[in-house]
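Bifunctional diguanylate cyclase/phosphodiesterase
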Amino acid sequence: MQQSNAAYFSQVVRALRSRVSRYAYYGLAIASFAVLMATITTVALSGEPVTLSTLYAAQRGNASLLALDFMPFLFAMWGQYVGVIMSHQAGAMVLDQTERLRIDKHALEAEAVRLGQRDALTGLCNRAYFIDQLESGIAAAHLSRTRLGLIVVDLDGFSEVNDHYGAANGDRVLKSVARRLGNAIGDAGLVARLGGDSFGVLLDPLQSTDILENAARRIQQGLEPPCALESLALNLAASIGGAVYPDNARDTYALINAAEGAMQHAKTRGGGFELVKARMPLRDAEMHSLSAELRTAIEKDQLILHLQPLVDTVADRVHGVEALVRWQHPRRGLIMPGDFIPRAERSGLMRDLSNWVLRRALEYAADLRANGWPLRMSVNLSARSLLDPDFPDVLAGLLAAYELPSKFLTLEITEDTLMADQRRTLDVITRVANMGVQISIDDFGTGYSQLAYLKRLPASEIKIDRSFVQDMLISKTDLSIVQATIGLGHALGLRAVGEGIETEAQADRMRLLGCDLIQGFYIGRPMPIDKLREWLDQWYLHHTPEQDRWLG
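Tokens:
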């Protein structure tokens, strides 16, 4: 760097000196011309002809002209000297300014990097930087055969703070918690905000689990003093989970999931601290490691989509199919969604997973339609997609890419997902419904939704949860719930869909109750698309009249 700066300085000085010298030469020529003109004027005024001899005589006989002859050269030399000095000074100024700009640039770049590593609200490290540090720590611990500890802190009842006191006060609470966590951990570990009201603490290296437990105890003590919120004193509480590498997991996301699982277990017990046991069951340990492999599975197309048919009870024809994702793991075989979807939610992969399912489902729907089966494709929509304001535009692009009319797509949304953020979800759902996409409320009756809110939704159908359908033939209560749900759906102008139909008696009872659509193992199990084509051929052969073979 010093050599390049010196070379640059020399180059600038030479350029400036060349420019000053050029103008000094111009001055010398002008001065010489002025001396010549003065000599000619002197000869002319004396009355003699202007010749070289008379000019030379005038120069010798006039001391003033003789002295004037030396002035241009003196000024040229002085100009050269001044030019050298000025060029060095100017070059030094340029070099100084360049160095200052370079320092400012490096400072701005360092600040940009710092801001990219920080959470804008709390000033703690953000999730991306925390995961990078955790990955580096695990790599170093693997080489040095040491241990590190991870703590996940999740505030209890924080959603009520936002609901009752507003988002601004919720932000104040998060800032206060961030300060308390920083004070509790100090220089002993790295504290980060993982998202929402969830925080992480990295203890590297970890000498013993006692240090992890002591850190969790200091966090609990730090959260004990009430948090001043306007005129109120809010008591804070948190559920805390801890995990140790390599005792509980051997990769980054598996360790995070282990700590989060311990935190969730602590939350079910009413809060406090829970440490993952050193000897985890083999199945739990394997499932924790799935998070790290799921991203690769999405990228390498290891996921598969099974389709389960839905049948119209009145027309006795296939109305559509529901897309159900599976994971064909290269070592563990077929993994069901209940085992990896929670991992996707905790690992931040739910958006990628949902996009994969949506693309493949639209591809299958377009293929079925092109081959004479214009069936509706039902796809479960995640909460992350429902809160993404760009989702309707992404969906419109996918429908256009597969040239599939929007009426052939149904998005299924659970009640709990709908109630997460009513304003944002209603906006996204309305935009999607305005495109012509059907909206289905899944697991209806199992959540805590408000009918006043549900009636504002542009929904097309409600799906009665299988927990009510399974026992409706032996439980009058469940039968009454199913019957009332069907009636409520029809009163709101919605189709009623019965899930979990496993026997002919259940199917017959749903027809008598007026249920519009049914699905379940009695109708057809989830199957790959090639098996679905064979199933469709058999269904239409035995259930549909010849003159009405295909859906219009």
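Confidence is low (pLDDT under 50) at residues 279-285, 546-552.
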